User: What shape does this take?
Amino acid sequence: MTSSKPIIQVENLIKKYKKSKANAVDDISFEVNEGEFFAFLGPNGAGKTTTISILTTTLSKTSGKIKIAGFDIEKESSKVRKSVGIIFQNPSLDLNLTAEENIRFHAILYGLFPFRPFYSLMPESYKKRLKELSEVLSLEKEMHKSVKSFSGGMKRKLEIIRSLMHKPKVLFLDEPTIGLDPEARKNLWQYLKGIIGEEKTTVFLTTHYLEEAEVADRICIINKGKIIRNGSPEQIKRTLIKDYLIVETADKTQLRNELTKKKIKFDENGEFKIYVQNKEIQKFIGNLKTKLSSLKTHAPSLEEAYLEIISGEETSNAVIQSPA
Assistant: This one.
């Protein structure tokens, strides 16, 4: 359950790279509440990774104000880094170490434990946390093997374990499940849902798997450096995509005439696609005189809404940019 207390505050964020004519991130503002599952979506080059890089202090901003867990990202960057966990698209593992050594040195750098040269000398609390996370992602048998021998999916699992070791207040996930098999993806999301509820961890996600964003509390869509939509998945779907019925009938002429007379919008391509909102379906069917042979309802998906938003933006820009 989310609280109304913002843990991420972004005000008028701008990032412009040298020699670039346009801003990569163009004056965006948003908040993310404590314990919220927040999905940040957009096409390639939209500004997603730039935004996350700034929020996690790995890239400097051009202007704007940002606070993470109450800390200013410039004045208190070390405190910000201790408050967040990060899984980037590109691996950042030391291939010369074992999986456990990668995790141990990460935990030591975060100040969670004093330095110990061997796993056997580490406290029981470290071993317990490592066992818990490695079992979630089915990597417990590989913990003491060299990362050089790992597949791409195993490296991704290891990065996820490493990022969760210090129980971050905010977990940034930049395409976290790329390279994971379906079972590992399922286990990861089950675990993440648990820590959102139990530990009030805030999850900030970017993903190309839109079904992963369906369960987010809130979705923010960015394109060409600007935020173009911000709301719950249901709000985003309902404002753009309409419910409709898919029906078939033996008497197409009668149905066509009846719909036209009642001024009900429809498309016909073998079957009829009739645009009726969910709350009006029962009334529509009750008043329909044409006998139907089949009826199916269609509810909008996030993917449909997302594609409509992005294609609408592209069309709008194309019109604006076209010569007179």
